[in-house]
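Appendix B. One record, verbatim.
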Amino acid sequence: MGNVRSQLGQKFCSQFLPEEQAEIDRLFDALSSEKHSSDTSPRSFSLKALKSHIGEALPLEMVTRLYDGMRRVDLMGKAKGPSESISREQFTMSMSHLLKGNSEEKSLMILKMISATEGPVKAREIQKFTEDLVGSVVHVLNYRQELRGWTQKTGLGPPPRVQVLAAQLFSEMDLRGGEKLPGPQQLDCECDLAMVEAWVFRVPHVATFLSVVIHRGFLLRLPLDLATLVPERHVDQERVFESVLDILSVIYINSHLPREQRHRWRLLFSSKLHGHSFTQLCGHITQQGPCVVLVEDHDGHVFGGFASCSWEVKPQFQGDDTCFLFSISPRMAVYTSTGYNDHYMYLNHRQQTIPNGLGMGGQHNYFGLWIDVDFGKGHSKAKPKCTTYSSPQLSAQENFRFEKMEVWGVGNAPVLQQAKSSRSVLDKNPEAQILLEASGRSRHSEGLRDVPDGE
């Protein structure tokens, strides 16, 4: 491993484009010009200079990690320990690896940010790094006022969902042989470069979060597309509304949506705003395009599903294999299609012989997620797993009760055809039209509207 690090130092060539390299040079010049920087030649900068430049944009722990990682870069493979300050070459190499490097190069920098020694690190050190990284993302987005309408619940200590998301990302770390890292008793397991590299490759959030921390922490004047990371939040009429979701929950769910639907979330239904009514739910979510459905049960579990197409009230299953179920609390996880069946989405109302309600996955009366027509009741059945999504029981109790339910349309609102919007109820219901005419009553709108297409 030490040899790999040394070789990378000797072969290093900046991956930045000329205009990007100019910005990296500008930033280094600013850092090395700080009053706390080294006065020696060649120019370099100290930890105090970095803290002074970043200010309160990042937590102190992450500033120190970034500084330690950079000063541990050994360009020639001959250094006997970390340098006292950071040179231009160390800074450029570090930024190049962190922002534009491959999984191996990013992993090398992560290991340097974790430990001063060569060789493997403990799993608990990876876990702590992940928590610091996730917490830093929330911190810097909030500090730079780039939450895009979402909120981050405040209070003493780190937000609970920092640990929840960090635990989810960390759980993707594999041991030799493909075993998942077990519980806390195994946190002393050693993780080498190959394991960290595979983790960074498999979990894109790690590289994305590092990029956000550096771009927004250092205020780099380089492009960073936050639109697909943090969707813009739209609530009608600017109504005051506090979602069940916090910024990390949104980022996590959003990362699993089709890319073209990640830039905007539109509130379609909230039990808090629109009432505890299944009829209201159906009226607000049908024909609104893909959406995210979520509930919080009385035990505090938060879970839901992604519907890949507009909901329609009908007795048949709908949707496709891009639908998924998810959990947010007490753990974060996404459960995708197994291919076993096509029972992705179901919405039915006012039928006597089949279930009335909203369901995702499983089968009638045994859904992975079910919201009953008797609003406020539902179930999540999985013994041992939901057949459609391989999800476990999402709620605390198999049959649950809830007060809070939200549905968010994702991406742009669908453009309804003018012909559709101009059709009357009678156009859609020929039987009602026949009964009206049989009773001798006329259609007052007849002759006043254009005839809908296809008639």
